[in-house]
Write a structure and sequence with these properties.
Layout: E1 4-16, E2 19-29, E3 32-36, H1 44-59, E4 69-71, E5 74-76, H2 81-91, E6 95-99, H3 105-116, E7 121-125, H4 132-142, E8 147-151, H5 157-164, E9 171-173, H6 175-178, H7 182-188, E10 194-198, H8 199-202, H9 205-215, E11 219-222, H10 228-240, E12 271-273, H11 281-286, H12 292-312
Parallel strand pairs: 5-6, 6-7, 7-8, 8-9, 9-10, 10-11
Antiparallel strand pairs: 1-2, 2-3, 4-12
């Protein structure tokens, strides 16, 4: 596919699930720019879905929007309680998603609730770190802070279904949706109340809309720590969903030290206005991958993804 590509490497303002740097490339086609930035631990199949999403953004028009203003949450990494409180208070968002799964969980969630106030919406993200027994105990304890939902509290779909019958906190499926056969299994086992849809890791906006329809569950568009180029795809999904009852996890550009566009897609008073900014040449030059080793690693990931996509073609 004949597309213009540019590599980038951006530091994170704070570690997020162990990630300290985001490396990838953006590619330009007839319909605009797409982003390919799978995490280093992604296998060929996962990277291929991300490349498929990038190709879609560059070559296929996105659906017509149903709304132009997207409510978003502030994302709180595994910070000390005081830092978590300060981050939420300064965000302007009335919804917060808190990473949990370590000994500071209770204090961090309590601090975020205090920053949000009683009317703010509070959700937690576990990334499948708990067993059913741990999740039952933890969610019953954290539930006193008024949880909107818990995102991927346990690893397997079967365990999510078990947990959902034991706790009152609604359950959202994230990683489970991205596994082969995940949407079908989540639906058949009634394992979740909500689905979290990340455009690039799932293969594009149109694929996410298909999953939302297939599961019949309320959907939350969320990011995978992309630049504003990738976030624009998430906004396109959020704008096209038939209903949008929950704030979306798309306010993550602030976690990056820099961005590829002149006007980053950042929330103002808890919302982001639908837009599709193009990379700025000066920003692309400033954020270019500095080391040959990083460039070779990215090129290898791209080749694996391309090979996987080619193997899927009939």
């Amino acid at each position: 596919m004949d597309l213009l590509t540019r590599g980038f490497s951006l530091g994170m303002r704070m570690p997020f699930r162990g990630v300290r740097k985001r490396t990838g490339l953006v590619l330009q086609g007839a319909c605009g720019w797409g982003e390919f930035s799978p995490f280093p631990d992604y296998d060929a199949a996962a990277s291929a879905r991300w490349l498929q999403g990038a190709y879609e953004a560059a070559t296929r028009p996105w659906p017509e929007p149903l709304r132009t203003t997207i409510p978003v949450n502030v994302t709180v990494p595994a910070l000390a309680p005081a830092d978590a409180h300060a981050l939420v208070a300064a965000s302007g968002c009335s919804t917060a998603k808190v990473k949990v799964g370590d000994p500071d969980d209770e204090a961090r969630v309590e601090a975020v609730r205090d920053a949000l106030g009683p009317r703010g919406r509070l959700r937690v993200d576990v990334n499948g770190a708990w067993s059913v027994e741990q999740a039952t105990r933890k969610l019953r304890a954290l539930g006193r802070h008024g949880l909107e939902y818990a995102e991927q509290p346990v690893g397997s779909v079967e365990d999510m279904a078990r947990l959902r019958r034991q706790v009152e906190v609604p359950i959202a499926a994230d990683e489970s949706i991205r596994r082969p056969g995940g949407p079908e299994e989540v639906k058949s086992l009634s394992a979740a109340d909500i689905v979290v849809l990340k455009v690039n890791p799932l293969g594009g906006v149109w694929r996410c809309l298909q999953i939302a329809e297939q599961t019949g569950l309320p959907a939350v568009a969320s990011s995978a720590l992309e630049t504003s180029v990738g976030i624009a795809a998430g906004l396109a999904l959020a704008a096209a969903l038939p209903e949008l009852p929950y704030a979306c996890g798309l306010g993550t550009v602030a976690l990056l030290e820099d961005d590829l566009v002149a006007r980053p897609l950042m929330p103002v008073d808890g919302t982001i206005t639908l837009a599709r900014p193009e990379p700025d040449p000066a920003n692309l030059n400033r954020c270019a991958i500095p080391g040959a080793g990083e460039r070779r690693e990215l090129a290898a990931r791209l080749r694996l993804a391309e090979k996987e996509l080619e193997a899927r073609r009939p």
